[in-house]
Amino acid sequence: MSDLIQTPSLGRLAVVPARDVWPHEALDFTPWLLDNVDVLSDLLGMDLVLEVAEHPVGGFSLDLKGYDEATGETVIVENQLEVSDHTHLGQIITYAAGTDPTTIVWVTTGFRPEHRAAIDWLNQRTDENTRVFGVVIHVVRIGTSEPAPNFELVAQPNDWEKQVKKANSAPSANANAKAALYFDFWDQVLTRVRAEHPHWTRGKTTSASYCDTTFGLPGVTGSMGWSREGLTAQIYFQAADPALATARFNALSALREEFEAALGATPIWDPMEGRKASRVYLLSGFTDLADRSQWPAMTEWLIENQVRLRTAFAAVGGLKGVTARDADEHRDE
């Protein structure tokens, strides 16, 4: 009959053994994960940077070590292309003791119940500055298509999902009116940022007075914010080690003439005495967050000056040569 409804032709999703894609953990999977860190970043909801593979810890080798670019906090990743085992659980604890991470990620093809329970126990018993995640890697394909990775978050800190949802959800009708304004404003700004500069951040809209973007160096952020003076664009130094943040600020200040020439402006240099942070910032002429008609112009100003700050920062070398040794010297002063 011509009136019969034709059913669509659909492919079947097939599971591919992970070893068929990555035969060797250290030689194949670890380098792939290093080059495709965005998969983990999106899953965990953080600006994750992985920079070292097979990092030595005593007589052992940690698979991957990096940091959360927004906070500078250390992240370690241990992976295995098998179901979880006691050996890797012990290795993770050993590596954590040797690197003092804030975030620990264990990637496997599946978790035994006792190992998943061990992650839950660690998240319950450790302090609020320690987070342990369990991630399962699946590989799938449809028909003869290329195999595709599919990461699944199966274990996490008790309040992590709540924190992510809170960060990604709009303020309720009963929330502070100012917070609601901030949320809408940063949503507009980040929409532009994601379209034009997607590498700046994977962060979501916030109801805070500031919004941070990554700057290519742990503990250094490109911060956009509202202060009593008005709307600002900043380079903000707040490393996990306050002395390192100060050392970086001082190093940039020593290059002030070169930096300001590249910037084409004279920023405000604020050591923020008595605080564990410091900043260099540009002040706009915008002072009224509530004036929605000016939001497009405000957004344009923020993006334009973020670009200027980044360009000037790169022009003086990006401070990559400032190390913990410089921080130690600062402590001795």
Folded structure, characterized:
With 333 residues, the protein is α+β, with helices and mostly antiparallel strands. It has 2 domains: 153 residues, Trna Endonuclease, Chain: A, domain 1, CATH 3.40.1350.10; 164 residues, Yope Regulator, Chain: A, CATH 3.30.1460. It contains 11 helices and 12 strands. Strands 1, 2, 3, 4, 5, 6 and 7 form a 7-stranded mixed sheet that branches. A 5-stranded antiparallel sheet has the order 8-9-10-12-11. Strand 9 and strand 10 form a beta hairpin. The chain is globular and about 55 Å long. 32% of the residues are buried.
State the gist of this model.
The chain has 333 residues and is α+β, with helices and mostly antiparallel strands. It has eleven helices and twelve strands. The protein folds into two domains: 13-165, Trna Endonuclease, Chain: A, domain 1 (3-Layer(aba) Sandwich), CATH 3.40.1350.10; 169-332, 2-Layer Sandwich (Yope Regulator, Chain: A).
